[in-house]
Design the sequence.
């Protein structure tokens, strides 16, 4: 059928990429190491930066954290199905996004088959959530006011306020640095996205020139960000700056506006979990985090 035809086409493409230097020799691969090698190979053979950033998003936030340590040759369908089921149960990602995530994994595993690293791909047959076309229905004015009221005492108040009052994407918001925020002029320069790989954070330039832009802040956001900056400075003073010997649990300044208790960037999945719990506790209508900005 169509599914088998698609797999065969991917196999042919994988073999072609293999001949162009994508794959490497014998090695005991973990799933995470292979995913990293695969994406690096895609970049070497000229895939568009936007395509690579899409792969990086799914690798950094979902595939590697959940599956990265599993030896590639021991990766089995039940483990992958459990991974998919967990994403569905968490209700953080849409069905379409979960499907995109699985498709990225399938492509990488198909290349592993073509390279002779594994015999078959365990991701070919998985039960995926159905995609239902849902008309966007952003919060109305009263709901937005209720949301802003609900976040007043939340640690992520500034982030959530930014999300509902601007059109910044999640990755853009988490990559935002104080150097890009002008509280006097009331503007924000958007020019970076944030990715995590090899257990380290990487700031990367926005996909296109059109993604690089300057946006104006509403007065509420300016006030909330100013308060947030003072709170962050106080938090940093309280624990002191990081020192490997004298203060290993100190503040590691990354320059980001929205940071952890130790100064590092926030993990998107933790933000999404907090958001989901917040709107449920406040009794607000269910709304994806992505749709907050519409």
Sequence:
């Amino acid at each position: 059928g169509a599914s088998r035809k698609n797999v065969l086409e991917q196999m042919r493409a994988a073999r072609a990429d293999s001949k162009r230097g994508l794959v490497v020799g014998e090695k005991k691969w973990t799933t995470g190491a292979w995913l990293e090698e695969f994406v690096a190979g895609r970049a070497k053979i000229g895939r568009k930066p936007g395509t690579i950033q899409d792969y990086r998003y799914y690798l950094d936030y979902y595939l590697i954290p959940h599956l990265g340590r599993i030896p590639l040759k021991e990766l089995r369908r039940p483990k992958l199905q459990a991974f998919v089921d967990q994403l569905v149960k968490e209700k953080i990602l849409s069905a379409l996004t979960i499907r995109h995530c699985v498709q990225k994994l399938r492509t990488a595993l198909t290349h592993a088959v073509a390279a002779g690293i594994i015999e078959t791909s365990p991701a070919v047959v998985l039960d995926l959530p159905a995609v239902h076309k849902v008309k966007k229905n952003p919060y109305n004015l009263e709901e937005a006011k209720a949301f802003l009221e609900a976040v007043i005492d939340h640690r992520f108040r500034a982030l959530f306020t930014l999300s509902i009052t601007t059109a910044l994407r999640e990755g853009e918001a988490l990559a935002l640095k104080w150097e890009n925020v002008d509280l006097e002029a009331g503007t924000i320069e958007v020019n970076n996205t944030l990715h995590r790989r090899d257990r380290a954070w990487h700031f990367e330039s926005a996909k296109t020139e059109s993604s690089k832009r300057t946006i104006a802040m509403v007065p509420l956001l300016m006030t909330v960000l100013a308060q947030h900056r003072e709170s962050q400075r106080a938090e940093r003073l309280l624990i002191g700056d990081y020192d490997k010997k004298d203060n290993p649990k100190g503040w590691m300044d990354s320059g980001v506006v929205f940071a952890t208790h130790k100064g590092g960037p926030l993990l998107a999945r933790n933000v999404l979990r907090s958001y989901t719990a917040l709107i449920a506790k406040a009794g607000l209508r269910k709304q994806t985090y992505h749709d907050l900005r519409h």
